[in-house]
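Quick start: what a row looks like.
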Amino acid sequence: MTTADDLVLLDRPAPEVARLTFNRPQRRNALSIALRDRFSDHCDRLAADTTVKALIVAGAGPTFSAGFDLAEFESDDPDHQHTLWASADRFHQAIVAFPVPTIAAVHGPAIAGGFAFANATPEHPALYFTVLGEPSIKMLRYQQQY
């Protein structure tokens, strides 16, 4: 069973470099609320670490990220919807405002939210055997409801 600690792995592949890896390969690294919150928590700590001079973001397995976990959009509960969108805002802000060069090491598909995330990194994403896509029609329907 995957715990919150396992959803985003942190390692230091080189001096002054931190790497965060989305770790839900069985779900194509779908960006669940728990994964986004864990990623944002890591970014908060790493942003305060003066030894970090660069950040790499990767995905475990053959997919960088299939985007948001759409199963979480099935609930119409207002509290859940608030949590969902607050988590998404914090997640994107964590990467856009990160204080050192940040590279999305994109390999395999980066779809919807995974694609948006890769494009939000301040440096250009590093692309390896990549498929990029933005099928946002269904997502727009969800956003118009809330």
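That is the whole record. The chain is about 40% helix and 25% strand. The CA atoms of residues 78 and 133 lie 29 Å apart.
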